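QA checklist item 7 of 12: single-chain prediction sanity check.
[x] sequence parsed
[x] length recorded as 199
[x] structure emitted
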Amino acid sequence: MFYQPSLIQTTLDNLNSWASKNDMILNGEKCKLLIISFMRDSPPPLEISLNNTSLECTEEACILGVWFIQDLGWGKHVDIITQKASSRLFWLKKLKRFGLPTDDLCEFYQGYIRPTLEYAAPVWSPSITARQSMKIERIQKRALRIILGPQYTCYNEALIYLCLPSLENRRKDLSLKFAKSLLFSDLQKLVTPNPFGSP
């Protein structure tokens, strides 16, 4: 198979030059190379360097708390956020045993546990699988069982009783809110195409 020469090194050199002119230094030892590819056969390895330091090639990378992998799937990210949220349910159980009122337990869940399942949701939520969505939703189901105790009957009734939306609906609302915010942002031209084709 024929592969075109990579422009990554040239682009990185240009970026490094721009950073130097603006009094910034890029540390090659703290940078890694993640190749995004959907090809059946993996592309040949690339030798990319930054300030005479060869960049380590990796299959996954965490950028600002969001995990990316080579095929842009979200299994790794979903696994990590659900594990983190699941571990925090321990404190919800403790507070339940201490007799904290239902409203306070619900506030604790919304402020301490749910945010871990929704961080940067507009980035990854539109392309997760149904199974991954259900895995995230199960964390909220467990939380509501803890909060309501013997009063818990089923998930949908618990949502109505506590006036909570499903996590799936919340992710849709968060993504829509983010998209609308871009319409009034100075960054719009950087992330959305110009419908009139002018610069």
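[x] summary fact logged: The CA atoms of residues 134 and 149 lie 22 Å apart.
[ ] second reviewer sign-off
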